[in-house]
Amino acid sequence: MIPPAALSVHLAIGQAYSWSVFKKPLESAFGLTGTASALPFQLGIVMLGLSAAFGGTLVERNGPRWAMFVSMICFSSGFLISALGVALGQYWLVVLGYGFVGGIGLGIGYISPVSTLMKWFPDRPGMATGIAIMGFGGGALIASPWSTEMLSAFGSDLGGISKTFLVHGLVYAVFMSMGVFLIRVPREGWRPPGWDPAKTAVRSLVTTANVSARNAIRTPQFWCLWVVLCFNVTAGIGILEKAAPMIGDFFANTSTPVAAGAAAGFVALLSLANMAGRIVWSSTSDVIGRKNMYRVYLGVGALFYLVIALAGDSSTLLFIVCAMGILSFYGGGFATVPAYLKDLFGTYQVGAIHGRLLTAWSTAGVLGPLIVNAVADSQEAAGRSGSSLYTTSLYIMIVLLAVGFLANELIRPVNPVYHEPPVEEEAGQQGPLAMRGEA
Amino acid sequence: MADGQETSTGFNPLMLLVWAWVGLPFAYGVYELIQKVAQLFGG
Fold it and tell me: Transmembrane ranges (chain B) (predicted)?
């Protein structure tokens, strides 16, 4: 029951990716610009990174149930404060509620089940975290049509938006509470029947030792992995953020231009690839190893980009297949990284280390759209159109993926000087020795 | 909010309810997504 407990939190907080549903109604009701209506989402993503980075140690100390409870309170309160803000005509309350308070719920909720899942499934940590992180990708699939229907039912004026936010806050509180009630930490020394930890540790990068979060960020391995994650996410977000206009522009000068309705289908297809990649590729990493999996994400991902750049607007199908491949690697990169961290640093404070690594996501969230939009704008200003708007940014992505590939190659086992010393276990405490006994 | 500790992951009837709790909304989301994907190939 641990995977569905984790899913109940990730499916809820994954709603963040469907914020765009509220943009138009908010712009009409408050007279906002597009930039202003994006503020709650942007602040939410910034708070996700910050709360995951700074709250990771608290999550490790207080456990997953505490973390899920905090996430549930913050995420639901964010909607309730936003409902009040809309009802009072005070947009700043929406930014504060959804962005700041709700964003803390996003960050704490995102990392809350990670280390617990890996303790329950030490034999398949990639699959275990893949299930939960797939939920984050799937959350928008649920929220997007659900929120749209609710706005249709209540109306898109201030009263209707307020009621919609209110219902979201209450429903998500109930939905996430299942995870809070059911999440459990396995007893110390627990291991799956028939699983021999010695066999897992045979791979050169899989450690049986433990590294604290404080020490982990002092290792080159952490920063190599930071570069790997950052550039893999940058490459995916570059397409994801501009998917609908991108496919339209790409084939605008051909005999088969892509209509707006079809572009929406392309966006949906990318969401599916993103979500499927999270479970399929992270599970595959349990078999072929984390380093090899990232070789595929970065190496084959660069090849997909190269094919798009060389093929140009010659084939819509080829473009769609390559974009889906890139997005599946984008999702897979997110889902595989907790297991990679566990391999390198052990399970001792893997949640806290994961939180610190997610700053790479925040960086990529700025970098990816910046590259694609800046290049497209400059090409358009130079009088170009069609696929040539994106050719330069495609080659930039290939370079970034190549740098990420090199960073992955540089990852070696962590120097034992960073390992936690084997200490006698205090009663009731989980420490390095206990974790070592499990691994 | 201290965490409980369990000793096994054995199946129990609650399992069905718990998976339905997350599985049904997820199935709804996937259904809606497939409808949109059909627009890409259906025109």
Answer: 14-34
